[in-house]
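Thread: "does anyone have the structure for this chain?"

Original post by V.I.:
We have the sequence but no experimental structure in hand. Need at least a predicted one for the grant figures.
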Amino acid sequence: MNKILAAAFLLVISSAHAAQEPEAVFNRSCAMCHNGQLPIAPKKGDQAAWKPRLDKGPDVLLKNVTEGLNVMPPRGLCMDCSPEDLAAVIAWISK
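Reply from O.Q.:
Generated one for you, C-alpha cells below.
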C-alpha cells in the first residue's frame, strides 16, 4: 500500500509542477552514478533496488535526495532543480 501511495504521490508531483524534463535532468546530473558506475547507487529501472527506498515514502526519499545521503551529493548535483523537479526525476528513475 505504501508503495502505491508513494508512486501516486510522485506521479502527481512530477507531472503537475516539474519545470525540467526528468530525463534531461537524469542525463545531466544523475546518470554518472545511476547507470551502474557506482554499485551502491540504484540503477534506473531496477525496481528491486528502488523498492526499499520507495517503501520509506516520498517525503523521506525526497529529503535524502535534497540533503544527500552517504556518497550521494546534495540534490544529486542538480543545483537548479526544484523539489518538484527532483520528485519527477525520482519517479522517472525508479520506474
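V.I.: this helps a lot. Residues 2-93 form a domain with the Cytochrome Bc1 Complex; Chain D, domain 2 fold (CATH 1.10.760.10).
O.Q.: and The CA atoms of residues 13 and 25 lie 16 Å apart.
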